[in-house]
Every structure is written in structure tokens, then in C-alpha cells.
Input
Amino acid sequence: MNATLRNLLVTASLGCALALVAHGQTPAPAAAKPPPAPDLASNPAAERGRIDPTLPTIFVAGDSTAARGKGEIQQGWAVPFADYFDPGKVNVVNRARGGRSSRTFVSEGLWDQLLADLKAGDIVLIQFGHNDGGAINEEPPGSKRPLRARASLPGLGEESQEIDNVFTKRHEVVHTFGWYIRKMIADTRAKGATPIVLSLTVRNLWPEGRLERGSGQYGAWSAEIAQVAGVAFVDLTNLVADQLEPLGEAKGKEIFQQDYVHFNAIGADLHAASVVAGLKALSPSPVAKFLSAKGEAVAAADAKYVRANAPRVALPLKSSDVPRLTQIGAGKPAPGALIDPAVPADPRLPSLVLIGDSTVRNGVQGDGSEKGQWGWGAPLTAFFDLTRINLVNRALGGTSSRSYYNTLWPGTLAVVKPGDVVILQFGHNDNNNLANDPRARATLPGIGEETQPSGAATVHTYGWYLRQYVKEIRAKGATPIICSLIPRRRWEADGRVKRDLASHAGWAAQVAKAENVDFIDLNELIARRYDELGREKVLPLFSPEATEATHTGWDGAVLNAEIVVSGLKALKDDPLAPYFSAVAQGIPPADLSQPVPVPKPLPASAAAAPAPKL
Output
């Protein structure tokens, strides 16, 4: 390499690097069908030098396209990246390691090492994909590729595959590419740090005379993961490719001297400057106050190459955040019907369907207009990405498991399709007296097969109705989730909220266990939260009426929706995990293994008002 190239490593701006490439030698065209991405002969571990604990840190997690390489012939972009920042203001720590996929970066403990040094206020740049394709374990017969067992499962779902790793000789559960990137995002946030996802570096491949825009779907998947999680995203692939492509295919070899994946020091600096340009284009920029003079000289990229991390719904949640059509339909009620029920906004998407009583959806409109009362199904919308899943709140106040099943359920079941999830919560209106039951909603106690006539109708047990829902939901290829009823604002003499274990909450749990259905014990989870808050702080969570002990106001509904999300996250195989919004990211899984909070005993006179009729 001549002196001009060496000087460029020190002084290059993005434009200078491009000018250098434009005036280089002409390489041979790239092969039409490239071989698999090559490994480097050596992939040394990242250096773990001293980190100034008094400064914030920018970490880089990635592969050989970011890791320290051989020098001028082959270099990762995160090496010159540090030159764009003032070391007196921020640490720049490159933890990328060659040959690693998102999977092996986690499974080898490299991610845990990064987490051990991560603190609140830091930034983590996450970039993977080049090594995530290929064999999950053994190479196929006839393959000449080295044994690496590093590929992640393709896609963004929650699928997994258990293997006995032929390379490491250990048992391993392999997840999707999306799962590993989501884990890194969640772990980073849990430390109070900021994750930023980058798409892949450019490869020097020119199918049909155009520079390739990504290795497989990993760039698109990275963008989608970032969008769903509500984190910032820099489209480095297109940002760099749009600069290189005008120079022509013949110039690519000047940067990609070793192979079509690994660039030289000039290419590393071009990518580094582009990362900086992308980070500066974010609004607000997370790195603006840390830049060196070299970083200040880089112009911000066009906004089309980035997406900021603002969630679609901001905290604290407001009632105006609830999309109206998730709670009620757009048309007029059918003759004899009270409401026009909500329907899936996009039939192509999976749907989360809610059924239950007024503690799930309150009032005719479901909008708090009934005495300021809200069910938890309204604020639950904020915790899901509604561009990826429909939320359809079909609950209706005053219904029991029986009355809903006999009137509204056929219409609701008609909108359920394979892949949907139906959450059901009943119980508050199931305990009426059959002898005086003008609204035909009383059920028999328990979960058995007993029946009793009531006029022309045959009434079954509470458990029987829940089993019918489960059976019919599964017959549609959908997934049922049972919730126990939320607790009322009724306090025991020892200062705890009264539980319902001996009746409907306990019966719901028994049915879920017997039918092998996912179960969220809202009765206990919410009661524990009320125990922690205490009587004075719980009172404002309910409807403004002083005697109200069942129906929550907006803040109480938000609290209950958060607990629904925590319960979902605690499920072994949560079918809704891929669809959470950024608002849901900070909610930890529920943990009923912890001891029940011990509140202060209340005076003997502290008795709750009787629950109103729903």
C-alpha cells in the first residue's frame, strides 16, 4: 500500500475514502455464484483493556467485519471507529470477534462478558448476520466447508432446536436469529443502557451489475427486530452501498483486497465513518456530545438510512393512546345488539382476541365514558405492536362465562383463525342465584359435569363453560390462555386483599391445569401488587365512585394490563412474545415463587364496601 493510502487511514473522511477508491486499480469482476463467506485464518479474542468507569462507553458486538483484523489488508470497521470519538468523553470498546454469529456470540459467553462491563448510560451497537447462515450442526454430505456449527435458525420467531453440538461436544438449544438479537436488546435495556441495531456491512458482490444489498434476509430482519422493539436502527448496508455502487464494479477490489466479505483499512474507515454518519442522523443523536474533531467533520447521513427509537406510544400511557377500533367496530350495531363489536384491523395478521366482562372492557363504547371506568383490555393495546398483530377486545360488561358463551361467543369465534390467541377472563358475574337470574348468567359452582335446568335452559358449571371455550378455540387452530378474575378492592383484617382461590380464581386454575392451557393468575398477581401499595394508594386506582370496589379507573386498568403482560412473559412458551411493543420491554416476567408481601394489619373496622352489580 502506498503512502497516500496510509495517510488516508489517519485523516480519511467519508468523502476522501471514496475518492481514493475511485482512483485505484481495476480488479477482476466478482464471481456470479460466490462461495460461502470465508473465515479468517485466525479470529483472535477482542482485547479487554481498561475501561474508564467514570465515562460512558460505546460497545460494539459483531463479527470479523467489525473486529480487529490483520492491519491494512484486512481490518474491521470498529477499529478506526474509535478515532471519531473523544477519549476524554467516552470509552469505545470493540468486543466484536471474527467468525461469530449472533448465536455463537451468545453461546460462547462473549455476550455475557460484554454485559459484565455494561452499565447504565452506555450504548451497545449490535451487528450480526454474516455468519448466521449455513449449518446448524453437522455440515451436509459432500460439503467442503469447515465444521463450525454456528448458524442460527432462520427468521424472527420463537422456534428452537435442541442439538448435541458436534463442534463443542455440548448439548445446546439453538434459537432464531431474531431471538438472539432480541435477547441482546432486552439484556442491554435491563442494564439501563441503549441498544442500537446496525444492518450488515457491504459485500463485494455484483449480481446483475448492482452491488449486493445484504447477505440473505439478515439486514431486513435486523430492521424489523429494531422496529418491533422500538430501538434505533442504522441501515449501514444501503448507506455504504449507495456510496460505493456509483464507483462501479471494477473498483470494489481496491477495498476488498482479501475476499468479498473482508475489507481493508480504507474500507474499514469508510464503514466506520458511515456508522458515525448514521448515528449523527438519529434524532436526538446518542453520540453527538462524544465526538472528536474527526467525528464532528462527518456529515449526518440522510434520514432515510436511520430510524429513531421513539416508541409508537410514549409513557406514561394516556387513554387517548387506545385505538378506538380495537375496542368497538366502525359500524352500527346489528338489530337487537348493544354494540358493533371490534374486528381484526388487518385479516392478514395474527390476532389477540380478548373475551370477558367489564373488568376487561367496560361500558358500551369501551372508552371510559361509563363513570370513568376502564377494563384492562383497553391499555393492553399499548403493549403490542399493532403493525404485527391485531388486538380485538370482544369482552362485554355484565357477561358471565355462561351468558357470553350463549350469546356473543359464536360471533367472536367466527373471527378467530389459526395462529390467533384468545385470552379469557370470567367469574365476576358467574355467582348469581339461578332462582333470581333475569340476565341468565349464573353458572353452577365448581368445574364438574353437573347440570341444572333453569327454565328452558340447561345450566352447567363454571368449569364446563371454560372447557367449551378451550375446546372450540383449539378447534380453530388458535391458542387459549385462561386468566383468573381480577381481585376486588376488599381487604382482609390482616391488611391483605381478599383472594378468590376457593371459588372462581381457583376453579380457573384447575381447568387450565386439567386442559394443559396456559394460565395467568391475575387474582393473585394483582392482589400482591395491591398488598405492596397499601389501601390508600389502591383506592385512587378504582372508579371515582367512593363505593366502587370492582371497576378500575384508567390508572388501575394500566396497572392490570402491565400485570397481564408480566404474566404472559412468565409463560414457558409465550405465543405473544414476538409481538410486544417497546412499551412492554421494561416489564419483567411475573414471579409467584417470591414470598407474599406482608402488609400492616388494618383496624378491625376497615371493611370493604360490598361489590356492586356489574
Q: What stands out?
A: The chain has a mean pLDDT of 87. The two ends are 81 Å apart (CA to CA).
